[in-house]
Structure formats: structure tokens, C-alpha cells
Amino acid sequence: MQAVVISIGTELTLGQTVDTNSAWLAQRLAEIGVETALHLTLADELRPVEAEIRRAASSFDVVLISGGLGPTDDDLTRQALAGAMGVSLVVHEPSLIQIVEFFSKRGIAMPDANRVQAMIPVGASAIENTTGTAPGIRARLGRADLFAMPGVPSEMKVMFERDVRPALAARSGDGVILQAVIRTYGAAESEIGRQIADLMKRGRNPNVGTTAQEAIIGVRINAHGKSRDEAKRLLAADAAEVRRRLGKVVFGEREETLQHAVAELLWAAGKTVSTAESCTGGMVAKRLTDISGSSRYFLDGVVTYSNEAKHRLLAVPAEMLARHGAVSMEVAEFMAANCRTISGSDYAISTTGIAGPTGGSAEKPIGLVYLGLATPHGVSGRELRLGDHLSRDQVRDRATKAALNMLRLELLGGR
Fold first, then answer.
1. ω before 166 within 30° of 0 (cis)?
2. Which domains occur in the chain, in start order?
3. 411 contact partners, CB below 8 Å, separation of at least 6
4. How far apart are CA 193 and CA 198, in angstroms?
5. How do residues 257-269 score in pLDDT, each as one tens digit?
């Protein structure tokens, strides 16, 4: 079974409100074996909505609609649905009674405008709304089972779970789609794609693909099975193979972050860390301490943005700063080494660089960053040339991720 998820609202098409309903619905559909083939976002315009409903119902098995069931003139979903079905709207008396009671329980007379919410297309059925005023609508149109639900997420979710999901599950049978995302850092998307190219072939089950977001590459695995056990087995086999091939660039799954991975490794080893930052302005320390329980591994951090602060707080020699400049491998390594000594931590991370958009030169361009890592076995550094095409925020973000990953790889050792 394939589905179309339609979100209706001019506030969505103009970007004034972020549509979270579509993603939530697609995930719930996958749990019962229904694959979402298309997402549509439509403005509050009667004829375009009517046309898209008719088109979707002629091509797909399921059409889910959220939004446009309110009491105002721009709420046109019920009218568009009636138009697509070629029927008129009629008052659904039980729904009207429920809407009146909704207001009376709150000591308010029902506004006349809310009467329209009790109207449904001839031949459709109403879906009770237990948390708001607008009932949903269920209809059969073309080849599709169609469900229209309120756009308010809390109302939509209750209605879907109570009424829509069971109806669709009964039709889809025991099929299920299970999903996993393997998160990686340190390799380009093209390189990851090369290593798992055979797993990404079209028509294969599981379906495997990649997504890139701010230097984090996710490997998506969607396994279709006639049962949960079958889908789980297929998913586990591909996830294990992806991990085996990609090795240490894999740091987690789903929404896990690099700081989560570092925290787990520090906890397991019983080790501590401190930070000395310049261009990242405390972002490394922040991410390490975003994790609950970080006091078990994070000792302290210092932001030494100016040369004077580097000299005063970390004892970076004035002669070193004058000879090599604050943005240099020598200074990054010294910052890390002395930070570790001063704090007494097992590890120390340092950052120094040019985040832009000003301050670059031909010799030291915007996006040049040096990282330092001090360990019980010595100190090492790394040069990053992130490029002047990135914004200041992106340079700082990627430098922070690279610093965390440098520590992660050190903690992994030979594993």
C-alpha cells in the first residue's frame, strides 16, 4: 500500500509555520506497512486542493489530509473534498451536537461560524474529535481510503491513533516497514555511497540511501517485511553490514550526536576531559555538557579568545604567538597540552581559527582552523581548511564537530 500525505494551510506554504504533521504521519504509516510515496503542501485555495485530492485518490491507496477543517473562511478542506467527490455538503447532526456541547461545557455559546465544522460530504462519514471541535472525515474516493484530520497536531495525533491507524492496519494486513539511520562523520557522502553502492541498488529490500546535513552523513535503511520479525531480521542484517564496511566513521544511530558518542566512550573508560577554545567560543564545552551526567567526565573549559587571554590563562608564550600567530598548529597544541596540565584531566581539546566573515588573508584564509588534542601519551594537532564559502556559524559548527570526532577516534584506539 502506498500513501499520499497532504498538508493544507497557507501558513505552511509561506513558511510561517513548520509542518511537523507530515513527518509524524509518514512514520506512523511505516509502522503498519504503508509506504508514503508523496508529501504535498497546499495553500488554502479551493480549486487546487480539490484537484490534488482527486489526483492523489486516483493514483494511491491511502490519502491522509491534515488541516483546513477549522471554522473560518479559509478552511476549505471539506468543500474541496466534496468537490472532488462530486457531491454536496450536509450537516452531520451527531457532530453538531458534540460541537455545541464542547462550547457549553466551557460556558460559551457556540459561534455560528463553528456550525460549518459539522458539515461533511454526502457519502462520507465523520470521525469524532475528542480533543477539539472539528470532526475528521473518512471517505472512499477513486482507489483510495481517504482521511481528513485537523491540522492541530495534538488533535490530529489522537484521531489518527484512535480511528485512522486501526482502519488502515486492518487493510494493510501484517506488513510492516522498520527504519534505522546509521550516523557517520569523517567521510564524504560520495565515499560512503561508493562503499555501500550494492546495498543502495533500486528495487532492493531493504531500501538503503544516504542523507547529508552539516557534515553528518546518515545511512537510511528501510526494511519491508510481511511481519515485524521478518522486517527486523532484514534491518539488522543491513545495519550490521553498513557498520562493518564503514568502520570508525560510524558514531551512532537515529538522533545520536557526536557528543553522545564521546560521552559513552569517556564513561566506559572512566576518563575526563577539559577544553581550551578560541574560534569556537565554548561550543565544544557546551556540547560535551549538553549530555546529562556530563559532570562524570567534564572537568572544566576556558575560552581564550584574545592573544592576551591565551598568554594569561594558558601560558602560551608571547614569543610563540608573535612568531606563528594565534591561528597555528603550534599554538593549538600548546593550548591543549597546558589545558590538560592545569585542569588535571585525562584529555584536553583545543581550537583556534578564523571563522570569518572577516580576518582572513592569503596565507591564513577564512575557514582555517587548528585543533589540538592532549592525551596521556602526548599531544597532536590537526589542520582544517573548511573554506570561505561557509558561514561563520558553519565554520564554528564544523570545527566543533571535528574536535569532538578527534577525541572520539582517540578513545576508540585500535578498536
1. no
2. 2-172 (3.40.980.10), 176-253 (3.30.70.2860), 258-412 (3.90.950.20)
3. 262, 265, 266, 269, 271
4. 9
5. 999 999 999 999 9
